[in-house]
Specification:
This protein is about 20% helix and about 30% strand. The protein has about 160 residues and is of the alpha+beta class. Pfam families: uDENN (PF03456). One of its GO terms (molecular function) is guanyl-nucleotide exchange factor activity.
């Protein structure tokens, strides 16, 4: 009704927490700092990095790439006609097409390393594969991204 909603995690990798790096609780709140809302137009994709600090003072860099998808309205709207009285009562409340609404969908990458450009490129690749509907499974793409080696600034690979 109001267009406000609550985010939910649809899919995550890995599916279970790693012992030394648990999944951040409430990550969906950081994806949409202004709240999860529907909009009448498709907004351009956005990217930002939030830094979360856990109870042990360890930093977790949460890169968030948000894009907008069309959603179908759950309820048809009805429109009452104002005629001169010549129209039949059956036509008094004719359904009209609901306005197209767009909902945010976010891809999030959580890392202990601060490499915003790598995060942006990785999430952009996942987004492109998703939008283009390529026959590559996201599990394989993410698995390949997780196994790549990123050089440490000023150090050996």
């Amino acid at each position: 009704g109001s267009g406000d909603g609550q985010g939910q995690i649809l899919q995550r990798f890995p599916e279970k927490d790693w012992e030394d790096n648990p999944f951040p609780q409430g990550i969906e709140l950081f994806c949409q700092p202004s709240g999860w809302q529907l909009f009448p137009e498709r907004n351009p994709p956005t990217f930002f990095v939030a830094v979360l600090t856990d109870i042990n003072s360890e930093r977790h860099y949460c890169a968030c790439f948000t894009f907008w998808e069309a959603v179908e309205s759950a309820q048809p709207q009805s429109h009452a006609r104002n005629g001169d009285g010549d129209e039949e009562q059956e036509e008094a409340a004719a359904p009209i097409q609901p306005a197209q609404l767009f909902a945010p969908k976010s891809l999030v990458l959580v890392s202990r390393l601060d490499h915003a450009e790598v995060f942006r490129n990785s999430l952009g690749l996942i987004y492109t594969i998703y939008v283009d509907g390529l026959s590559v499974s996201l599990e394989n793409v993410i698995g390949n991204l997780l196994t790549c080696t990123i050089p440490i600034t000023g150090g050996a690979q």
